[in-house]
Amino acid sequence: MTRTGRSVLVTGGNRGIGLAIARDLAEGGDRVAVTYRGTPPPPGLFGVSCDVTEPEAVETLFEKVAGEQGPVEVLVANAGITRDALLLSMADRDVDDVLDTNLRAVIRLAKKASRRMLAERWGRLILVSSSAAFTGSPGQTNYAAAKAGLVGLARSLAWELGGHGITVNVVSPGLIDTDMTRGLGERRRRQFLDRTPLGRPGTPEEVAAAVRFLASAEAGYLTGVVLPVSGGLGMGI
Length: 237
Description:
237 residues, alpha/beta, Rossmann fold, 8 helices, 7 strands, globular
């Protein structure tokens, strides 16, 4: 079924990959809301300040989005944080914060969004993971574990929701040129690029194009898919 002017929610859509996704879908005619915790999104996007780790805040988020543009039909779970350290020196709080934001919050968001999608017998859930989920990343055991968890979540939900016209897929970016990755040291950045066959960072717009496809009618027979947007980083894993 082709749908236009859909109600889309992109978490963490005020900057970087999330903003590129939100802009891309909005330019395609969708009504797009984004969450943020710091800087609001630029004009043209409906922004909701929301801590996705708080259950009450998520309830309010979906109410605000429904009131502004209708119940969520496409959810892009993009919000994420890092708290990097070697495991032996990683504080429990840093483990909890990353798991809460990058995994537990996504479970909460997917549960909330899918209730309405079930009633409509149509929906798109797209989870933004990371190549670190497949290659591992020293100093990011918490982050890699949370992002790997999204794959198990998506594939389990694909079974639970597939008979109701709802697809659940994962996008797995590699080294993408964002404010966060620009903060990497040159040595660490070079390590990523040496493992990337295309030899360059990706752009947020390239990730957005993959999300746009998975949200489209043409992707209606794809579910439980992990789509790497990584320049080949982690290829074949």
